[in-house]
Amino acid sequence: MNRSSLHFILAAIVAVALPLFMRSGTLASEVLIYAMAASACNLLLGYTGLLSFGQGIFFGLGSYVVGLTLLHTPLPLGLAILFSIVIGALVATGVGWLSIRRQGVYFVMLTLAFSQFFYFLAYTFKDITGGDNGLLNIPRPDVGPLVLRSSWAYYAFIAIIFLLIFATLQRVASSTFGRTLLAIRDNEERARAIGFPVRTFKITAFAISGAVTGLAGALHALLIGVAPLSNIDYHMSESILIMTIIGGTGNLFASVLGAGFYVIVSDLLSTIWPRWLLLLGGLLVVVALFMQQGLWGLLERIILALRPASRTAAGKEPGRSPL
Description:
branched-chain amino acid transmembrane transporter activity, Branched-chain amino acid ABC transporter permease, LivM-like, single chain, membrane
């Protein structure tokens, strides 16, 4: 069994296990929605080396597009979601095309500037987006015989989409395209000297990431029935980045772990103390200081520690991950 297959099986186990251990279908759905967004972010950060603060743009646009489509047109849910994916990909292509003209901190500043630009557009055009109040009363239509009104029925719908998206992203990451992104991340100048069209690869990675993040935003709006202004705020970009880093970069299943950890721990801490963000901030400091490879790196170290010493010495290749 190769690593991609193992990671897909682990993702499927998470999707099946969440209803068994969580009482809230809404919270379980949020885990998978943010797992998709974090996986898309990981394609940029972990595989391409691009620290983008623009992921909230695509998440928010996905929310608005699906909401406006369902509220003002008779189109079915499938087409509304498809529009969110397409708009996310198109806007991400434009943002990526402009942002990758600069590198390092200037690239980060450009993505942050775009995030603020789209936020104030959404805030200004209140007649379209609802402004501070958000886009309200977004319906959740049924899909054929599948009735999505209950939270767990909608979770099943999201779980199917999540597994399809995860498998697709795994296929992309393990393909020649994905390996080329890793080469660009490790040594961009050498990749360019070999003859790879670096700009094209980066823009394509942006487009794929934007499409998946737009899908996640659409599913989130359908989950809560609102497309809030906070979905397109730069804080959303920060949250998605934090989930990605907590889980571990360069591994798509790690993003699932990061999203699950962030969503569930945030929910638990909010019931303990109104100023729970202070507790979450302290927890993130611990992660940054002592778990620089994220939860996935911690899991790998635990597995190595539990292996018999003789088996580790005889069968483990130097530098090779156990998973």
